[in-house]
């Protein structure tokens, strides 16, 4: 049965935003009182909280699928939808949040620290919020966007001041049980400790924590035994205490050889960027089990060699509680000095203000296709706008086109070589596909005609002065021509009459 878990993959689903409402206010004597559709509620977030009372990720190992609540839809009479219920997940202090590909998102080392691992979707606007002087009664509303849905990896790294390192059965669990109130499992076989144990030690005015972690063997830095499971938990420690068994009966082992193996494995382990390598941290040596006469003689023999290599050496017995007090005070001095150095190195927090619009909101990527180039529009805003659009509503589609044009998408498509009829895709994967038909952008802000028509192409009914003058002259010429024709007809008629009378 699993009792301790320090790595788990969470499958998270944030809440979906509620849809906006399309509604028109109606009451007696006011059948069309204007739009009053409310906004949809935002979806709930999935939040990780660093909780000092939580020491393991075991609960998430058994139930890795977690979901937050969805936002409610908007309603008429300006009633907004309810907000989705957020989900808070307590994790141990020292949990590292990573993406599935290994990117570190956050290192939660501060108690009470909060991190939104899965942001909820945004609620859609109702038609009341979309109303404007040019669009007095919108017949559409925006849809709610989906929340984040994906995986995050939680990796627990023990937060302790001192790490006890050594071979299996060297007496690390017995030591932490002797100097603190911790009660780890103790037995006379290797790898008794299968998960880290923490103990709090009080030495004078200094209180610090000690981590007892699984035993180290040769090849641990490459994953042999409990290697990586062990070494992950010593990354945060400010000091290392090498616990060496002076009473071992295994052939080929002695205190100096054991220490060399441990140092080699610590040197081979790569700590995260920005942290001090393990061997550059303060190190002490504790020669354990000197209650055995042969072990005491061996400790006295190897102590000068260890001190010559620069180590402070303490001869201890966890059974007889011998030599423990000087050891705890020596560790307290190292921890206190490290804390002072960290306090002096903490930089002042700088507040950086970045104006909005300093970075482009979208990019256009040209992709080759079977039937020609495909122009893919990528960016948070265009993708979100597509998610909010009801493509069954022509007015909503027109509103999307207006938003994209104002953002500068059409200008960018022209710049990268798109032509009318080109295939345009918004978002990654199989998203919405358009056959692009560019609009006329010049003086578009002055246009008041419905979308799809252009008043600039319609001739005005008001005549200009030159047109009126030309038409006047045409009428005068027409009248003169008519009078001349009538005069000709009169003269011809008179001539005929005179001829008849002369006969």
TrEMBL record:
Residues 354-438 form the OCT domain. Transmembrane segments: none annotated. Residues 453-469 have a biased composition (Basic and acidic residues). GTP binds at residues 166-173, 191-195, 212-215, 288-291, 317-319. InterPro entries: G_OBG (IPR031167), GTP-bd (IPR006073), GTP-bd_Obg/CgtA (IPR014100), GTP-bd_prot_GTP1/OBG_C_sf (IPR036346), GTP1-OBG_CS (IPR006074), GTP1_OBG_dom (IPR006169), GTP1_OBG_dom_sf (IPR036726), OBG_GTPase (IPR045086). Its cofactor is Mg(2+). Keywords: Cytoplasm, GTP-binding, Hydrolase, Magnesium, Metal-binding, Nucleotide-binding. Its main location: cytoplasm. It is found in: Cytoplasm. Residues 160-336 form the OBG-type G domain. Residues 2-159 form the Obg domain. Residues 449-469, 484-503 are annotated as: Disordered. CDD domains: Obg. Mg(2+) binds at residues 173, 193. Pfam families: DUF1967, GTP1_OBG, MMR_HSR1. The keyword Hydrolase applies. Its EC number is 3.6.5.-. Monomer. An essential GTPase which binds GTP, GDP and possibly (p)ppGpp with moderate affinity, with high nucleotide exchange rates and a fairly low GTP hydrolysis rate. Plays a role in control of the cell cycle, stress response, ribosome biogenesis and in those bacteria that undergo differentiation, in morphogenesis control. Belongs to the TRAFAC class OBG-HflX-like GTPase superfamily. OBG GTPase family. This is GTPase Obg. It comes from Microbacterium istanbulense. The gene is obgE.
């Amino acid at each position: 049965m699993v009792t301790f878990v320090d790595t788990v993959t969470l499958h998270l689903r944030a809440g979906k935003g509620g849809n906006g409402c399309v509604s028109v206010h109606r009451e007696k004597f006011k059948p069309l009182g204007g739009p009053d559709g409310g906004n949809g509620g935002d979806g709930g977030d999935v939040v990780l909280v660093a909780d000092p009372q939580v020491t393991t990720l075991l609960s998430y190992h058994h139930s890795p699928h977690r979901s937050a609540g969805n936002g409610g839809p908007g309603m008429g009479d300006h009633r907004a939808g309810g907000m989705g219920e957020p989900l808070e997940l307590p994790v141990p202090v020292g949990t590292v949040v990573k993406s599935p590909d290994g990117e570190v998102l956050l290192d939660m080392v501060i108690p009470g620290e909060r991190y939104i691992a899965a942001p909820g979707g945004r609620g859609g606007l109702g038609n009341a919020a979309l109303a404007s002087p040019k669009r007095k009664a919108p017949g559409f509303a925006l849809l709610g966007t989906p929340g984040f849905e994906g995986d995050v990896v939680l990796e627990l790294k023990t937060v302790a001041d001192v790490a006890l390192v050594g071979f299996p059965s060297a007496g690390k669990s017995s030591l932490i049980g002797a100097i603190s109130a911790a009660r780890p499992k103790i037995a006379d076989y290797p790898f008794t400790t299968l998960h880290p144990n923490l103990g709090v030690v009080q030495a004078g005015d200094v209180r610090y924590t000690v981590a007892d972690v699984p035993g180290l063997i040769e090849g641990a830095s490459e994953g042999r035994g409990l290697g990586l499971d062990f070494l992950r938990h010593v990354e945060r420690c400010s000091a290392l205490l090498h616990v060496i068994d002076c009473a071992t009966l295994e052939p080929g082992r002695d205190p100096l050889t054991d220490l060399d193996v441990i140092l080699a494995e610590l040197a081979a382990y790569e700590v995260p960027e920005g942290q001090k390598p393990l061997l550059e941290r303060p190190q002490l040596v504790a020669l354990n089990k000197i209650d055995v006469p042969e072990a005491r003689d061996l400790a006295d023999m190897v102590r000068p060699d260890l001190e010559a290599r620069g180590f402070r050496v303490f001869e201890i017995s966890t059974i007889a509680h011998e030599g423990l007090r000087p050891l705890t005070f020596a560790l307290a001095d190292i921890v206190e000095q490290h804390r002072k150095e960290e306090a002096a190195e903490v930089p002042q927090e700088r507040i950086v203000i970045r104006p909005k619009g300093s970075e482009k909101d979208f990019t256009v990527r040209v992709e080759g296709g079977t039937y020609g180039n495909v122009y893919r529009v990528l960016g948070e805003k265009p993708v979100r706008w597509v998610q909010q659009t009801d493509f069954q509503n022509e007015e909503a589609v027109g509103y999307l086109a207006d938003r994209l044009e104002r953002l500068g998408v059409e200008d960018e498509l022209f710049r990268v070589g798109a032509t009318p009829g080109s295939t345009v895709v918004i978002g990654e994967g199989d998203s919405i596909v358009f056959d692009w038909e560019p609009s006329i952008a010049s003086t578009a802000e002055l246009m008041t005609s419905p979308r799809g028509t252009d008043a600039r192409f319609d001739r005005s009914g008001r005549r200009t002065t030159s047109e009126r003058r030309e038409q006047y002259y045409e009428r005068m010429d027409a009248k003169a021509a008519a009078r001349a024709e009538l005069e000709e007809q009169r003269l011809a008629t008179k001539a005929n009459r005179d001829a008849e009378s002369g006969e």
